[in-house]
């Protein structure tokens, strides 16, 4: 089985990376590169937006000398037993969703008890949006019962020919201090929500890598749908995404009463400007190629309406607008 696993990795590397030029860039949340090497048992949790996520291969190459087992939905029919056999051989642990079987949980626990690495996609299904969706908390139960640490891995899910997928490996999460008898459904939800919010921050930090070195040039020109705009708010600039004269999506209180909660909201261009003249971000040719399609920017912006989580350092109006505009 081990021979087949490494044969599959080498074959995939030649085809996907040398023929199709699919590449993956890996970053670390910790400057000392925590989890550059993982010792002992660990559960890797990762988001994805493809039925066959590139992240599985990327992590397999990253931890080449530590075989990675991964949880996968059993969507094969009986007539495709050959494919199931191959997937098992390369580390797949099947989940039978139709039967609501928990067999995968026990198999994963046995692997972790042997100090293996298990990769789980806690969204429970292929991502349906522009950001990681809410997690299913079975991985929390697995971590507590097995004593394995959790290693979050955020991906920007840039699949496709000649694109570079980026992942960021985060700091480990240790749940060994939590007694199993305290693991009620409410406690599971609480821990899961905390980890999900930490994962989102990791994802946002990864996205910053896209635009942190981009030029910061603005001009007083007419904005178009999908453009990033800003106004001078006195001590700082306030940023938003222009969709139309009646719809600018923003994150912050620059034009809102201080009594309002800081959430992503939509205002007219006139309300956004508040008497100031808006500037439009002007991109270099290389930067423009990283700009989302207008339809995607509009859909993403509207999907975020009502969302909170504002942080002046990690998740401010500038960060939000960049995520909406850039791929």
Along the chain, the helix and strand elements come as HEEHEHEHEHEEHEEEEEHEHHH
Characterize the biggest β-sheet: 7 strands, mixed
Mean pLDDT: 86
Helix content: 25-40%
The low-pLDDT segments are none
Tertiary shape: globular
Number of strands: 13
Strand content: 15-25%
Termini, distance in Å?
38 Å
Cα-atom radius of gyration: 22 Å
Q: Count of helices?
A: 10
Strand order of the largest sheet: 1-7-6-2-5-3-4
Structural class: alpha/beta
Task: Provide key terms for this protein.
10 helices; 327 residues; six-stranded antiparallel β-sheet
Quick take:
With 327 residues, the chain is an alpha/beta fold. Helix content is 34%, strand content 21%.
Q: Would you write up a description of this structure?
A:
The chain is α/β, with parallel strands linked by helices and 327 residues long. The protein contains 10 helices and 13 strands. It has helices at residues 2-19, 54-62, 81-89, 103-112, 138-146, 185-211, 269-273, 285-288, 294-303, 317-325, and strands at 23-28, 42-46, 68-73, 92-95, 117-120, 149-155, 164-169, 217-219, 227-232, 237-244, 247-251, 264-267, 279-282. Strands 1-7-6-2-5-3-4 form a 7-stranded mixed sheet, with helices on both faces. The chain has a 6-stranded antiparallel sheet with strand order 8-13-9-10-11-12. The two termini are 38 Å apart.
């Amino acid at each position: 089985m081990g021979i087949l696993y490494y044969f599959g990795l080498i074959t995939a590397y030649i085809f996907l990376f040398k023929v199709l030029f699919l590449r993956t860039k890996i970053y670390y949340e910790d400057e000392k590169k925590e989890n550059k090497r993982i010792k002992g048992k660990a559960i890797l949790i990762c988001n994805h937006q493809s039925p066959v996520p590139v992240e599985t291969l990327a992590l397999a190459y990253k931890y080449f000398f530590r075989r990675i087992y991964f949880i996968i939905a059993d969507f094969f029919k009986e007539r495709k037993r050959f494919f199931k056999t191959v997937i098992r051989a390369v580390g797949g642990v099947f989940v039978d969703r139709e039967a609501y079987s928990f067999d995968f949980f026990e198999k994963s626990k046995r692997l972790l008890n042997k100090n293996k690495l298990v990769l789980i996609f806690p969204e429970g299904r292929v991502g349906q949006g522009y950001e990681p969706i809410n997690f299913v908390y079975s991985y929390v139960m697995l971590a507590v019962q097995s004593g394995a640490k959790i290693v979050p891995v955020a991906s920007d899910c840039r699949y496709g020919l000649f694109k570079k997928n980026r992942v960021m490996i985060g700091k480990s999460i240790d749940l060994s201090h939590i007694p199993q008898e305290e693991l009620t459904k409410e406690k599971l939800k609480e821990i899961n929500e905390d980890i999900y919010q930490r994962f989102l921050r990791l994802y946002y930090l990864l996205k910053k890598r896209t635009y942190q070195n981009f030029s910061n040039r603005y001009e007083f020109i007419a904005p178009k749908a999908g453009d990033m705009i800003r106004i001078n708010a006195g001590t700082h600039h306030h940023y938003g995404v222009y969709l139309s004269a009646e719809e600018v999506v923003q994150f912050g209180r620059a034009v809102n009463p201080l009594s309002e909660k800081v959430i992503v909201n939509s205002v007219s261009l006139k309300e956004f400007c508040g008497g100031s003249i808006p500037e439009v971000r002007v991109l270099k040719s290389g930067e423009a190629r990283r700009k989302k399609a207008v339809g995607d920017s509009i859909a993403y912006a509207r999907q975020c309406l009502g969302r909170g989580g504002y942080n002046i350092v990690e998740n401010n109006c500038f960060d939000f607008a960049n995520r909406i505009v850039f791929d």
